[in-house]
Amino acid sequence: MTEARITVNGKETPISPAAPHTTVLDFLRERGLTGTKEGCAEGECGACSVLVARPGVNKPTDWVAVNACLVPAAALDGQEVITSEGLATVGEPGTPPALHPVQEEMAVRGGSQCGYCTPGFVCSMAAEYYRPNRCAHADPADGADSAESADAEHGPNGFDLHALSGNLCRCTGYRPIRDAAFAVGEPTEDDPLAQRREQSPPAPVATEYAQDDSAFLRKDTLAETLRLLRERPEAVVVAGSTDWGVEVNIRGRRADCVVAIDRLPELRELRVESDHIEIGAALTLTEIERRLDGDVPLLAELFPQFASRLIRNGATLGGNLGTGSPIGDSPPVLLALDAALVLADADGEREVPLADYFTGYRQSVRRPGELIRAVRIPLPLSPVTAFHKIAKRRFDDISSVAVAFALDIEDGIVRKARIGLGGVAATPIRALATEAALEGRPWSAETVEAAARVLRGEGTPMDDHRASSLYRSAMLGQSLRKLHAQTTEAVSS
Ligand SMILES: Cc1cc2nc3c(=O)[nH]c(=O)nc-3n(C[C@H](O)[C@H](O)[C@H](O)COP(=O)(O)OP(=O)(O)OC[C@H]3O[C@@H](n4cnc5c(N)ncnc54)[C@H](O)[C@@H]3O)c2cc1C
Ligand code: FES
Ligand code: FES
Predict the structure, then answer these.
(1) Closest CA to 284 of 239, 252, 322
(2) What's the rounded Cα separation, in Å, for the pair 283 and 254?
């Protein structure tokens, strides 16, 4: 067994004596890197944001910002982390460090008052600063002024403000922070973090990090992992840890054995075949979003509405389905896409339609020791799709109700309808009665009105602190009317 260690700001740092459940946030702070702050310890504020070197989408390595409060330090064994302290360049002895360009812009544009949120903001901002093709986005290929390619959410420098959607500031206000984000230029050629993107990312390493009665384990292959899970079916599996981290921090949960699956190559493939797309269960939502690049429009509509960029940089589809939550956002979308899950255990694989997967509140047909290896989406895709997430905030909020539609409409007739619902029953469900009320009928205001009344009656919505059952039912009906209005506008424009 080799010693577990993380390269922090270029320096190899042993994880010991941290406990296996110790978060990256506590690990860093205990080593004096107190720039990384705790605001909420549940992924909501971004004060703990740090940069991690990950396999890149357009370059060998991407600098990805994650919530250090949710990730166990042992999960980053062998990996590279940059904190806000590591962004600045240390100069000659006796001289202050030179600020990183994002720190400089935050300082000169008044983006920091009390400063508590600032290290988190600069890490999220730095990840976007180093995103390959960011400036190309803004580069006016056909002579347009770069300011013209900007919109409310993108700067003239291509900076996507969603990069900061998981960072909260209580005192400065967001305008100066946005000014700083929209002012950063391109990394220079001798910028060491820009250069690091051209090298291979750190390879995953097998980890056996144990203390007293608890252990954090990572195997090299899926086969080894499945054998381990057969021996220890009580083990907690973690991928991005965006759910598990909240359980550990807020509910005080501890596990004797945690098994990491997020770097398993067999769970990180994305393949487009002639009749289906297969998405590895341990790819992060950001990776899927960037690799599909809009090829599955319904998923493209889901991603910006799913938590924040910081969470999407860790969260996986396997984790979203693995929790079995009735308010997860991916199940309605995947139900509408007619997706199936590839489940794997030590004896082999089986494919289960997602519509048959959930059996009760946070329960599924998945057996102990079985993992979700991949999600399969059949092709061709239905052309008319929409995802309506009804929540109290536009971004970074949990659904009160979520509705996903995928319709085939030919010659004005609905040939096929798939509708996935979240937040209206103990499990995510298909709106089967509404689908039947649409199929074979004209896509007209009359059909939609009748089907919207059916949709209102689907599921068994509850009253809770997010919404009343009446509101949830009303939103279901509205959702179908909204889709009809959107498609009619698209046809007439
Ligand atoms: C601030 C915040 C905002 C959030 N916003 C949203 C939101 O808008 N919409 C939403 O749907 N969710 C949201 N979530 C919940 C969470 O981010 C998602 O459920 C995410 O997809 C979980 O993925 P993960 O890889 O981090 O799961 P983990 O925390 O690693 O694992 C979660 C569970 O799934 C199991 N699991 C993980 N991978 C697999 C697999 N391959 N096979 C079998 N079981 C597996 C684990 O054993 C564990 O029980 C939010 C969470 C936070 C903290
Ligand atoms: S401390 Fe708030 S997101 Fe981590
Ligand atoms: S500067 Fe005070 S919380 Fe943001």
Answers:
(1) 239
(2) 25
CA torsion sign for 233, 311, 56, 317 is positive
pLDDT at 137: 55
DSSP-H helix ranges across 142-221:
174-183, 192-196
> Edge-to-edge, what's the strand order for the sheet holding 429-430?
384-390, 401-410, 413-422, 429-430
Say if ligand 3 is within 6 A of residue 126 CB: no
Pocket of ligand 1 (CB under 6 A): 42-44, 236-244, 246, 261, 281-282, 306-307, 311, 314-316, 318-320, 322-323, 328-329, 371-372, 398
The three-state secondary structure class of 73 is helix
How many angstroms is it from 144 CA to the middle of ligand 1? 41
> Which of the residues in the chain have pLDDT under 50?
139-148, 492-493
The pTM of the full predicted model, rounded to 2 decimals, is 0.95
* Coil, helix or strand at residue 7: strand
Q: Indicate which atom in ligand 1 lies nearest the CA of residue 327.
A: 11
- What tokens were used for 268? 């990180």
